[in-house]
Amino acid sequence: MTEPTARRPAALQERSRRSQQDILEAGYALLEEGGVDALTVAAVAERAGMAVGSIYRRFGDKEGLLLAIQHAFTENLLAEIARRSSVERLRILRDPAVAIAEAVGALADAFQSHEALLRVFLLLGTRHEGARSEGSRVSIEGNRRFAAALDHVPIAHPDRAAALDFAYRLTYATLAHRVTQGEFLESDRPLPWNELRSRLQTAAISYLLSTPEDR
C-alpha cells in the first residue's frame, strides 16, 4: 500500500529540514572546535552523517556552506537577543534604568553564551568580505532593535537617536573586543564577564539618563 501523495511532500520537507539542521549543527561544532580551517565539506558530511554530494548540492562549495552557517547562526543570535529584550517585556519595566540595564544585559548574555562561534565569525570578518557584510547586517539590525526596545525610555540628550546609537556601539564594541581579544589584552586587571556586564549597564544608564550638568 503506497503512502498518500498528500503526505509525501510534508514528510520530505520534514526530512529536509532535519538534514539542514544536522548540517548546521555539525558546522557549528567544527567551527567551535577548530575554527574556519576545521570546516570542510567532508568534515561536515561526516559529522552530520550525510553524503558529501548532498552537501555540495545544497550549498555549492565550502564558502557557500560557511556563509549559510554564519547566516543561520546570526539569525538565531538576533532572535535570542530579541527574546531577552523584547519591546513588550521592557515596556512593563517602570524604571528607565532597569530597562536600559536589561537591554544591555541581553547583548552581554548572548555574546557570552556564544563566545566561541562569535569569535570565529568576528575574526573572519576582518579578512572575508562576505562574512564582514553578514556581520554588519546583523549588527545594524541589532542596533535598530536596541533602539526600538528602549523607545519608551526618556533620554537626556537632544538627539535621542544619536545617543541610543552610541550606547549600542559602546556596548557592542566592548563585547566584540572581549570575544576576539580576551580579558587581558589592554590590562592585567581581571574583569570577568559578570563584572563587565554590570559595568556596561552602569555606563549606558549614566550616559543615556544623565544630563551634561549631572555628568
What is the count of β-strands?
0
Distance between the termini: 78 Å
Morphology call: elongated
What string, H for helix and E for strand, traces the elements in order?
HHHHHHHHHH
Strand proportion: under 5%
- Tally of separate helices: 10
Helix/strand-derived class?
mainly alpha
* Radius of gyration computed on alpha carbons: 21 Å
Share of helix among residues?
A: over 70%
Instruction: Characterize the largest beta sheet: strand count, sense, and whether it forms a barrel.
Output: none
As residue ranges, the low-confidence spans are none
Describe the SSE topology.
Elements: H1 7-34, H2 41-48, H3 52-59, H4 62-84, H5 87-91, H6 96-113, H7 115-124, H8 129-149, H9 160-181, H10 193-209
Structure in a nutshell:
By secondary structure, the chain is an all-alpha fold. It is built from ten helices and no strands.
Structure, described:
- The protein is mainly α and 215 residues long.
- Helix content is 74%, strand content 0%.
- It has ten helices and no strands.
- α2 packs across α3.
- The protein is elongated.
Sum up the structure in keywords.
74% helix, 215 residues, mainly alpha
